[in-house]
Write a structure and sequence with these properties.
There is one protein chain. This protein has 272 residues and is of the alpha+beta class. It contains eight helices and twelve strands. The strands form four sheets. The protein has a six-stranded mixed sheet. A two-stranded antiparallel ribbon has the order 1-2. Helix 1 (44-54) runs parallel beside helix 2 and helix 7 packs antiparallel against helix 8. The radius of gyration is 24 Å and the shape is elongated.
Length: 272
């Protein structure tokens, strides 16, 4: 969501545009691969499915990292067909089949807690934080074999609101590897926060589809140029470098104009 704005045409606050974005990451470099305007004519999952069908096949196994909105069968199948396994979150009302009995993930967690089965959980440390993890491997509706991880922070074991469930279609991954891969998804949150804070992505006020697309193209070009300016391909570092460079060039032009014979109006024009 690109936030909301005051519409002078409508005379009231109007909600901004929504966007479906896919980032592609390889060898430590992460860039926006697709940014699609969501207009409700097609569902978000269908948009992502179409993007998956256009992706190049990775030379090695790739991974789709996503939240629970996109861990549906048709999206995961579309990415798997292109060589991308899914690692993401799932809602706790998802049905699993322990011992052939269908039940919601949150119901399974309650049974584990009621039976005082903390010994069935083991501790996994990710980014310095410790979690109790229970591993379920088996079928889900439409998925013949997958791993579901039920996790609690160690300080909140058994608390319903602290329960988080993760899915991996690649059953060969360990619990540690699944959680560490999912953590990499945070890059998309950083991407949106960055373009909102630095490039005013959530404050633009153009309304037409053509204008929105043109603006997004410009923002992504600035993002790419900023990343390219940094040896570490870091946006903030490159953006800061380019900002200082532009300011230095502007001050240099102003200085040259001040010591030359240019008119006052010509010098002031540079300041604009």
């Amino acid at each position: 969501m690109a936030y909301f704005h005051y519409s002078h045409l409508k005379g009231k606050a109007d909600y901004g545009h929504q966007v479906v974005c896919v980032l592609l990451s390889c060898n430590g470099i992460t860039l926006s691969y697709a940014m699609i305007l969501y207009d409700k004519m097609i569902s978000k999952t269908d948009i992502v499915k179409q993007i998956a069908e256009e992706l190049p096949i990775p030379p090695k196994a790739g991974y789709l990292l996503c939240d629970s909105w996109y861990t549906c069968v048709k999206v995961m199948d579309a990415f798997l067909a292109k060589g991308f396994y899914t690692v993401g979150t799932v809602r706790t009302n998802r049905i699993v089949y322990p011992y052939g009995i269908g039940m919601k993930i949150k119901e399974l967690s309650q049974k584990l807690n009621e039976a005082a089965c903390r010994k069935l959980f083991h501790i996994v440390t990710v980014k310095g934080r410790k979690y109790y993890v229970y591993r379920y491997e088996g079928s889900l509706k439409g998925i013949p074999d997958a791993v579901i991880l039920l996790t609690y922070p160690v300080e909140a074991f058994g608390k319903e609101k602290s329960l988080r469930a993760f899915i991996s279609i690649d059953v060969s991954l360990s619990d540690q590897e699944i959680l560490e891969r999912y953590v990499q998804r945070w890059k998309i949150e950083v991407f949106f926060r960055t373009i909102k804070n630095r490039l005013a992505f959530d404050h633009f006020q153009v309304r037409s589809v053509k204008a929105v697309h043109r603006l997004w193209d410009l923002l992504l070009l600035v993002y790419l140029l900023s990343c390219s300016a940094s040896d570490a391909f870091d946006f903030l570092e490159g953006f800061t470098m380019l900002t200082y460079q532009i300011q230095e060039e502007l001050y240099g032009l102003l200085y040259d104009a001040a010591v030359s014979d240019q008119s006052k109006s010509a010098s002031l024009a540079l300041a604009r």
